[in-house]
Amino acid sequence: MQQQQNLQVLFTYNKPGVNLLQISIVRQLNAELQFQRKIFCFLCAIQGVATQGGNRTFDYHNRINMKVEYDKILALGKAIRAYALGAENSFGPFSIYVDSSKSQFGSGSGAKSMRLQRGIDNKTNAPIVALFFKTQTSPNAIVMPLTIPEALALSDICQWIAMKCVDLDFELTSTDNFQTRVVKPKTVDQPQPAWQQQPTTSFSTNNVSNFSSQPDSARPVEKVVNNFSKMFEENFPF
After folding, report:
1. Which of helix, strand or coil describes residue 136?
2. pTM for the complete prediction?
3. Which residues, 6 or more positions from 66, have their beta carbon under 8 angstroms from its beta carbon?
4. pLDDT in tens, 151-206
5. Where are the domains of the chain?
6. What is the largest CA-CA distance in the chain?
7. Is the CATH code 3.40.50.300 the one for domain 2-176?
8. Within a 10 A sphere around the Cβ of 184, how many other Cβ atoms?
């Protein structure tokens, strides 16, 4: 229970069909080791069953859930596209294998695998791409058949999910590193520079009045201007 509380499902893509395919983006809240990623995926296949009314539902008790890194989801998307375009021979076999006994988050026990296969639909004779999910404890596989357009669409979705995981992982990791490296600066009261200090000298109003009442001899500029004006009137009387 404590392990499940450390997980936060951020997004789940559902692809219903004969069976149900789910791809979830999961955040690990408390990573015990420094190299552990904070973001990973659950790749899940859920068995489809028919109801009494003729409808179809899904048995969540009969499912195969695999914890995988988002690199695997990106690789799955590229493999699905290659198989859909008929390049499965040049691309080579593709499968995902996990051992749930060594994982703290995978449901069930034992080995689980998912493999791709290109085939022909028996009803329409159209090419299909199928995802086969199997466990070590059950001989029956949960199969997710896809038409070629569905396979190409799922390929794009897998790559979109993987890149979202990269962005989330980068954001969380870079934020944690920034918070641990930033040191809050200490504030120290420093003396104010001399040019910013307020002047301590005060001016008296008596000095201002004395300045305005000084004699002409103390104001040489004003005396020169008056003498020049008088000379101009005597020589140019108009």
Report:
1. coil
2. 0.70
3. 42, 43, 44, 96, 98, 100, 106, 112, 114, 133
4. 999 999 999 999 999 999 999 888 666 555 444 555 556 556 555 555 555 544 45
5. 2-176
6. 131
7. no
8. 5
